[in-house]
Write a structure and sequence with these properties.
Blueprint (H helix, E strand, L loop, with lengths): L3 E6 L2 E7 L2 E3 L2 E4 L5 E5 L2 E7 L1 H22 L5 H16 L7 E9 L4 E7 L5 E3 L2 E4 L3 H11 L6 H18 L7 E7 L2 E5 L2
Antiparallel strand pairs: 1-2, 1-10, 2-11, 3-4, 5-6, 6-7, 7-8, 8-9, 11-12
């Protein structure tokens, strides 16, 4: 029961994910961070099977860090997203595929543009202005389609995200209590309260 949202704006990407770790009808944890910071200007929200998500996220985090150490510069968001998609597609063709859905967001410091990628467990990837995974997507995608503005300042982007979270709280039967929200822009990754 993972829910994650992301949207782009004028020079930023906002990524939000619920903090609940649950299995079947049992809630095991309410402070799980489902957004992994991969580099100073790149982050990834993950959802899916609990063991797969943590293992795959740590694998991606460490390999992107290794690339940065070996080459003395970080991967740009389009390159990182392509490599992540390839790693997921390769695992799909192995004996132990990862059941992980991802939202990869980053700020490209060379072109000064935000990037957001929607990746599913089958290795399908597309660049999008906004995205959602999980049951919250059923309620939020129509709101994002109506209210998303690619030229909106950060405050307006957070207000659009707040609308999505409120709609999920109002309409979804099993509503998460808390969300963790992170923003990536020219200054790097930071967590914000909403």
């Amino acid at each position: 029961m993972d829910i994650s949202f992301a949207l782009t704006g004028k020079g930023y990407v906002i990524v939000a994910a619920d903090t609940t770790a649950a299995r079947s009808i049992v809630k095991m944890k309410v402070d799980e961070d489902k957004i992994k910071v991969l580099s100073p200007h790149l982050l990834m929200a993950f959802s899916g099977e609990p063991g797969d998500t943590v293992q795959f996220a740590e694998y991606i985090e460490r390999n992107i860090r290794l690339y940065q150490i070996r080459n003395t510069y970080a991967l740009r968001p389009p390159s990182a997203a392509s490599w992540i998609r390839r790693a997921l597609a390769d695992s799909l063709r192995s004996r132990r595929p990862y059941a992980v859905n991802l939202l990869v967001g980053g700020y490209d410091t060379s072109t000064h543009t935000p990037h957001l990628y929607w990746v599913d467990y089958l290795g399908t990837m597309t660049e999008v202005p906004f995205a959602a995974h999980g049951y919250g997507a059923y309620f939020a995608l129509s709101l994002l389609d109506r209210y998303h503005d690619p030229e909106a300042p950060l405050e307006e982007g957070l207000a659009t995200l707040r609308r999505c979270l409120d709609e999920v709280a109002k309409r979804l039967v099993v509503t998460p209590e808390k969300y963790k929200v992170k923003v990536v822009d020219k200054d790097g990754v930071r967590e914000v309260e909403i």
